């Protein structure tokens, strides 16, 4: 639902920091924003020091002026609580708000996202400020949402956190004995006799760098719990501020800006506490269109497949990559429509006016250092603004009609990458991208679902590298398959429970019967070394990990081509009830995943919305009013193809007949609806 | 002597951790171990927390049960003292047992091998536990050895260590003046006036990272002494436990599991305090057969060339390499016989039953997570067990008839790699492997000897990169050569004394007259750059370091082919008394070392035991009963060749006539004795 | 003026540490030094611990003997104050002298250059020692200079520095508000309300590692100020010692040994406080002749283009590079004459006699470990000594007749490389070397000038990557051009003021009108990716950063060849008054810079002193007596060419006629003057 049902247009705007500028500049900003068709601003993201100059002193004077200006000029406002960075005076007087890092170093004042989430000072003052803001601006009906803090993240290992972690464990396990079992402390004699013997797992205790530099732990159980605890601690901070606001303005939705595949925070748990999902999309220049789309789909998925807000993107350039490439002409527009195609109901920039100092001064903005409106970037922003105005609410609250679900689980991500063995080359995101990218290349829409989500809405469910099979998951998979679903999983799945304790009896543990196999061994291959297999006449590589398995009911679709396990199964299919379950026992290449999923989708009757040339993305969003088709040209060149039906171009009003040649410019976009 | 003269069979078994399992599993374990022909177990490696739940509370109940079960089921026991990891409660109550790392960070509870070796708490409680265990199980005559702690290692820089280091220095040097001379503190005005001014050399004081990442020191003297002190401190811990046991059970030998070329501990000094040597062999997947053999030979060498125990190896896979490759079919058997061929009297695994949690759960075991006996690994273990049973004591206590000694010295290792200049590319182990690998490829048996060991047993002594020439060594080399020995050393040798102080008068210092040369300069070459020389008509590369030398009695066997020192000697030979001494003034390639040593061995009359194809290892062990010949197929393929004599196959009873074709399967092994 | 006008010969010698040796060695040293034509020594560089064994105890006995010996044997002395490393007892009793590193770790005793520059203890005792030395040796008229401490460097973040930094800021900014503006603290709510809220910017506060490992900051303003403060703090230490000496011996010049392009210290500010510049030249084996020359020219430039002292170079080899290559025969001589050609009036070595212990024992020396005079290195030193004796004062105080200035500014160096975006590949020294190397390859002499230096002496001024345009600089550039100068600058110039705050209105800020362009965007290219352009018919690459610009009066000399900005200007020329200004909007390759500068020099009428083959350096120094031409053969082979005029060979007395063939041996040198 994003900004809420009463918003009947696509919001367009971004972070605005007038407090960095003299007031005479504000009028010019208003003029330029209007020229660019901007209709909303996010305010007050980093002003704690200004709003609260001292323990009991608050100063809203400048913010009052800004709020008043925005209201009078007709801008909607997403109002931030400013708690993403604490004031310097607070750090000096209350060192408990400063974090301690994973090497045990107490940090000093500096940076942002710098507050210990278990600091009583931080919690007290943050919630108090949120409440005060809500009270002060409760009557501003142009506030469309509250934005808590900013990009929550990082981790802390201070004494406050240590104490809170012990309490968290006590609540979770009840007895030290239960905790010992879950942590498997009989190993290496790590048995705890008292909660107070627990120390946070970090580089001073259980963590270390692997030979190849990855952070690893000697006790996965406690390390997983610390990740959960750290995520929960920050989520509590979010909730404290949210509740302080809700008490005053219960009608306005509350969010915070997430960051896609951000490992430290379990966003699936967070989204349950947020009124809607918003996120900041900063793809790396080398990310593929599929990788960008996957992030959008994850963000849509955590919110129950509801629409979301693109809270931040750069209009042109970032500043924090090793090299910061300009978005090419049309690229920002293309990425904006891609966001919309995957569920965004608002398109926002960081930021409106470029800062003149500090580390983000070379980050792109709507209004550049030159302060001119005759820039390429401003022109492109203006064009997009006009288009979005044209589109009004045509796709708002539209949903993606996915018949395929890919399971993604933060606990599993953490667990796979804390695992000591079989290979540091085994990365959870790689496995997820393997399958997602194949589906994306065929324009088959995918929902990213969590381990607790229902499988029943889907024809096909893919759970790549489902190393950790949490309680209930195997049962739901079995039932899904028995009732006709197609399930796919991969190497090194079904290994451990939610405590990272191995399921006895052989791999893939609770999935053995669904898959009809027993995996006896896992062979890890070094970089540059591959096995191979033949699938339907084509040879594909097997890399990273090769599972050595026995058929226990399943049939082999392909076998290893080399080494001592030559001829043993690598891909299997097991029929169960009216469905079937596939196991892909190794990591292969993009050509294989596309070949394999093509067959799966054919068997399942899953189809793309239209047929378009390679490199053109076709995505549908449907609401109770329209089914909107987005065609997005990622090919890097002009492309022409025959229209697959009769369509109306929502931006130009043109209509196309089936068979008529459509032309997509380089980075071009068509927003269509059926008929014409 | 390994487990002692009363053991008349090859022991076969490994680490067993029944305390991680419910008792009902124990019976199944016993059944499976017996099926696999396992006859011994190592118990109690990590149970300190279980055995001592509190300051004055000890609880042996579960261990009693396990010990009783093992005795009643007929298993021999290697009993560990459990002090390899301290209990959590002890860390909380006695922080002095926690180590401080090389960056000055006090560690917290976590990991293993985590106790400060100079902690009074640790020393007190560790020795007390060892004594209590000895008293409790003194009547178990199935105890074949005591196993102190586990894989001693690491280092500590805490305040306890600082104080102990000062005492250690005081004892070594007597006066501050002597210490100043040894440390060369006149340099950079580092003169100490009081023992208490000494601080441990680490990254907060004298150590730093070189431009290419290596740890280096500004004062080699103090850094070498800290390495010696740290090794001695841990050795004292070993001795304290050993003595606590000896007071009660003087008849049972005491060991601890070493780790081959483990840099921090001077095992040559350690072995003098151990009743027998045992070690854990975990070759990296990329290690060559020669590198594995070299480790065995080192471990045999530190024990005075006596047989040793292979305390741990994995049956299939490790978990801590970046990628963990399965041992191929036959590979574990091949490596086990290789260990035996180089001096092992027992073959043991880590571990019997695979753990279900924590960081070693993906390390291979006799009994896998599946708990099944129909696995490839279990079958191979069973086969090997049966074979070892067949062999009985045929090679026990057998010695390797080596006529070649390679000198290896921990002090020299430390010193070479603390050296600031001439090249970080100059690595001691590389130089040792160069010569060892050449001899290994010709199946010439080699003893690895220490700087204090006698040279007289050998025809040829090689001292690669003998940078540090400790007192007495040059004299013994001279006498060895004068009496007919062949001595070989290399570039950058004879440079410093045991304090890392340069010998005046020109390189190679005290070896100048034996070698008949003067090395004027050392030219370090960058990666990828080489000089060259011609040796007996073949051209070889010169890399890493090129010594520029003058003949002072020696003759040149080869000269540099390029650069301004073209035509000056690179390999020299000096005749002295009835022997001769060679100097190889650069690092070359494997072909050269083989060519060169072939000539040396020919001149010395050193021969391999038999002639076999390339890639087949032939090694002999002889005791007062048999001369056993091991043929080990490392070629990676089946190999056939003519028997060089009449042999009896000790595993099958077959006999072979000279000239008869022998077939070695891939990874195959033949255990033979003369006659047939 | 270097050692002063009364020195009428080239000083030749180096660091001498007799305190490391027994007195009987001293006589041999004297003999060898005289043999090598050495006429001066630098004494007492690291003897603080010896000179001050306790709080109030000083012991000059050994130094007295050394000073007396040097005087009686006729050696001139550069006397060091010994404060480059503090005594161990001082570190133990006064921990405030120990530094705290950028990660907040308090260091312990060890290393050198280890004193906190703001430690009251250090300042007190260092100045006191300097004063005592001056008083004791005031009557030694063979002291030609005082040498304060040694290679000042590094940085400290301790509590003393924190307090001093706040005072430094208070003095600079007057009010917290001014400081907030300069630091742009409105960003991220970093507003300070009190000086005491300021903490040093380091890895515990504002600094972090970029994805590619570079140190970066979140607030450039405070980080720049900390660099300035740290440089100033050490400079204060220098001045304190200098003043203590001047009070006693005002007639003797005071220096300290600098290190060329040493980033932490703003040598342009330092040189103002030094009586003459001296520096230590340790080129990396891979440095080009141009890079070595550039360092000399920088060192000459900071001293107002006066002559300088080559305080240290190695006669043969260093010890601290990853691999330490020997200087080839003639290479030390070639480098020594190159130093002289670029302004050195003295040639000195580190060191006279090689140390026998600690980390510099493998650093080359005049007298090697062998202690022999029949070494290659000693012979070369002796030859050079004889030559320098021959030359007497022929080029002393000679100046380089440069018509080209390259602007180099420490603040700009710091700022460019603290910048978050657009590319970590953008490195200031690379940009400077691009232009310098091109000029060097044409033997066009260049002065390296600072941001405050006059531009009027030059025909051409190049300011590569002038990111930070400090106050007054743009004005001086404009006036320079208007009056007929040729000015060149590059991509990403004119962006920020001295606080790293962006100039509003568009890039290149205050240089817009001089250059006649507006740079709208900057596109950063990844490694391996290039754009291109055609300049006078030849195609050249465009890499690292591509500025996208508009002409505002300038003309385009070349345009981009690819990408969406194909056809837009990349190199521009703007005529202003009687001069012109060029903008090179990207980084190209060596061929381009040479092509481009060839044209510039032609237009400006700038010429090399003579025409010589590629790879032969020709450099002139002129004093009121002679114009001396140095021809230096860097080609790596013998080279012959026709003399461009009538010359006299100052080393041999030979004369050459114009057109006569001159032969330069490999690494050869000719020192010539006009006529013959």
Question: How would you explain this protein's 3D organization?
Answer:
The structure is a homotrimer of 676-residue chains. Chain A is of the alpha/beta class and 676 residues long. Among the domains of chain A are: 66 residues, no CATH class; 201 residues, Rossmann fold (3-Layer(aba) Sandwich), CATH 3.40.50; 59 residues, Sandwich (Immunoglobulin-like), CATH 2.60.40.1180. Helix content of chain A is 30%, strand content 21%. Chain A has 17 helices and 29 strands. In chain A, helix 10 crosses helix 14. Chain A is globular. The first copy, chain A, starts with 10 loop residues before the first strand and ends with a strand. In chain A, 60% of the residues are buried. Chains in contact: A-B, A-C, B-C. Chains A, B, C: Belongs to the glycosyl hydrolase 42 family. Chains A, B, C: InterPro entries: Beta_galactosidase_C (IPR013739), Beta_galactosidase_Trimer (IPR013738), Class_I_gatase-like (IPR029062), GH (IPR017853), Glyco_hydro_42 (IPR003476), Glyco_hydro_42_N (IPR013529), Glyco_hydro_b (IPR013780). Chains A, B, C: This is Beta-galactosidase.
List the helices and strands and how they pair.
The structure is a homotrimer of 676-residue chains.
Chain A: E1 11-16, H1 23-35, E2 40-43, H2 48-51, H3 61-72, E3 76-80, H4 88-93, H5 120-136, E4 143-147, H6 159-173, H7 176-183, E5 207-209, E6 215-217, H8 220-246, E7 254-255, E8 257-258, H9 267-271, E9 278-280, H10 289-302, E10 308-312, H11 331-341, E11 344-349, H12 376-391, E12 404-407, H13 410-418, H14 428-441, E13 446-449, E14 460-463, H15 473-482, E15 486-490, H16 512-515, E16 517-524, E17 531-535, E18 538-551, E19 555-559, E20 569-576, E21 579-584, E22 586-587, H17 590-604, E23 616-622, E24 627-633, E25 639-642, E26 647-649, E27 655-656, E28 661-664, E29 669-674
Parallel strand pairs in A: 1-2, 1-11, 2-3, 3-4, 4-7, 8-9, 9-10, 10-11, 12-13, 12-14, 14-15, 15-21
Antiparallel strand pairs in A: 5-6, 16-18, 17-18, 18-22, 19-20, 20-21, 23-24, 24-29, 25-28, 26-27, 26-29
Helix pairs in contact in A: 5-8, 6-7, 6-8, 8-13, 10-14, 14-17
